[in-house]
Amino acid sequence: MEIGLKFEELSNMIIEGKHLDAESSTKYLLEMGIDPKNILDEALMKGMGIVGQRFRDQQIFVPQVLISARAMKFSMKALEPYLVGDNALSKGKVLLGTVKGDVHDIGKNLVAIMLQGSGYEVIDIGTGCSAEKFYDEYLKHKTDIVGMSALLTTTMVYMKTVIEFFKEKNVMVPIIIGGAPLNQRFADEIGADGFGRNSYDAVKLVDKILNIN
Amino acid sequence: MNSKERIKAAMDLKPVDKTPVMCQMSIGHMLIQTGFSPCSFWFDKDIFAEGLLKLREMYNFDGILISLHGHSPNWKDQIKNLRSEKEGEYAELINGDKIFFPFNDLPQYTFAQEKKIPLLNEIALENLPNILDYIPVSQDLHFKIDLQNKFGVIESIIEKAGIEYSVHGEVTSPFDYLIDLLGAENALIALLDDPDKCKMILNHYSNLIKELAVEMCATGIDAIKISSPFAGAGFISPDDYQEFVLPYEKIIVEAIRKENKHVYIHTCGAIGDRLELMFQSGMSGIECLDPFPLGNVELKDAVERISDKGFIKGNIDSVNILLNGTKEEIINDLTERIKIGNSKPGFILSTACSIAPEVKKENILLLKEVADLWK
Fold it and tell me: Residues A15, A27: contact at Cβ < 8 Å?
């Protein structure tokens, strides 16, 4: 079979969330001697790209995104041994966390999934993160972007504390925010570098900040 | 018309003398405005009841929503020690759990033993609880229902205010119990991986919630709200709603309607694509209807589509209008919503989601002030 069709087949497995099929298909392509980067770009990322667009257009919803992400994860498990050490395969590194006082992580996790599906490396530092934690983890991982999430109106204000903490330390990494009660006006007020209304927006925002088409 | 009659008329889709006003409040807001100890407010029936009554009076609302019930009179026995700090109270329980009670938000638990979330294949019907003894309030936060004192707080409030004001209780959607049981991500994946198993779990919880709701009706409550925060387009499609939410909420709605009580469903976020679908449950009204940007419901559109099916309670943006708006913006927003809402019978002015914690008292007082101008 033509390789293009094989890529399309794998891409569709990602879109449909067939994780076991996606894993075997990836292994098969590797055994055929196909360049892992091509498998990643032409099948997996393409598939997740379509998933992101369909999610944005409300053709699919969170459960469908989650099973696609799982299929992507299974494929990546097969691909990873072949990708080690090749930094060019990651579009960039993003640090993600929910701010102090907030235990909600569904939105953040969804952003992480979509970013990973789009080729970013995500460092997820969990929930209830203080400014110090964001800063320490940033120093440790030297990410290209820091992303903060909050669901509560009481905790969203802490995002400003984090931004100011980074400024005090003279660290100029772009900091972006997201969460149900937030909006662009709030992002501007606290000096954030961007606001994503949903996980698809978040990926587009990261692409834009890092000048990735 | 007194307040109780006004709300009842609106719920019955009958004319009212003036626009009824009744909001649900976040626990954080209640704490800030009452100044009660957050630990006591959470655990103590009398303090919680006193807070709700005080807030109703403060804002001159026509009704009271009792969002938690089942307080144990022996709650203090569970507390090993309690200390107050600048940012809140810290409690250590006898079982080793620790709870931080902020002065402006829900409590946060740190469990002595890591909470194990079961996988779908580990769940068997016989292992599910046969009695409902908790309310899944938020992520990692349950409110334990004392089975000997299930409705003490409701009875107390009805006794003190039930003649004059509309008193509403609350139960949680079966879909929320499923999410709580498996964790959000696993539960949402499970809908696609094993829909039959999910339906079995949903059916099980539906029957338990139904029993609880029917018992609640016997207290003399005026209406019951079904809290269903995960059923909007932010999470699931209309098709999944029809398959995994509607049939199970319908079981509860039908049981409450059979008791001649009103019942309304509250689903946060974007629900514009499923308003009619939600009414297929047989509910007598709908609450929330978050407008853009929190949701996607235009009140005018909602009134046109569903006002003949039941009452509408909402759709003020608690964050972008009440919390962050100027006085002028708030008055304009309220005026517009009242004008649209009152174009058909059955409108109750309310915030969409709960009043956010830091919303100023004077902003909330505007609700009743503006509503009273519109007969």
Answer: no
Q: Does B175 reside within a domain?
A: yes
CATH number of the domain bearing residue B174: 3.20.20.210
Task: Report strand pairing: B63-65 vs B98-102.
Answer: unpaired
Dihedral angle over CA of A12, A13, A15, A17, nearest 10 = 160
* Binary contact (B108, A64; C-beta < 8 A): no
Q: A90-209 has which fold? A: Rossmann fold (3.40.50)
Q: Which of residues 18-57 of A touch B (CB under 8 A)?
A: none
Contact criterion met (CB below 8 Å) for A118 and A52: yes
Report CA-CA distances (Å) from B27 to B153, B246, B274, B303, B344: 16, 28, 28, 30, 32
ipTM of the complex: 0.93
Whether B182 maps to a domain, the answer reads yes
pTM: 0.94
CATH superfamily of A3-88: Methionine synthase domain (1.10.1240.10)
Which residues of chain B neighbour A155 with C-beta distances below 8 Å? 105
CB–CB contact A67 B192 (8 Å): yes
What's the pLDDT tens digit per position in B46-71? 999 999 999 999 999 999 999 999 99
Residues in chain A with CB shorter than 8 Å from the CB of B185 are: 66, 106, 109
How many domains does chain B divide into?
1
Task: Answer yes or no: is B335 within a domain.
Answer: yes
CB-based burial label for B119 (10 Å; 0-12, 13-18, 19+): exposed
